[in-house]
TrEMBL record:
It comes from the Bacteria. This is Uncharacterized protein.
Amino acid sequence: MNPSDIRWNDEARAKILDDADRVLREAVLDIAGSDPGTNADAIYADLNSRLKDRFIDYEPGPDIRTYADAIAAGEWASPGAAG
């Protein structure tokens, strides 16, 4: 067996990704529903602080900035507003 053969099976891989999406979604919607104001940098920092300890080797990417900007712009006024 080669080291490259050591990997999660497709079912486990899909669950890991679904779980990661759920954690991200919950953080974004929680912040969006808590009247965060319009400071995208503060929202970005809040998202990062909520996510950094939930993932191994977490590094914020441009998607986190996209969500922070959307929250600051009022695109998600409440968790029920996400679609």
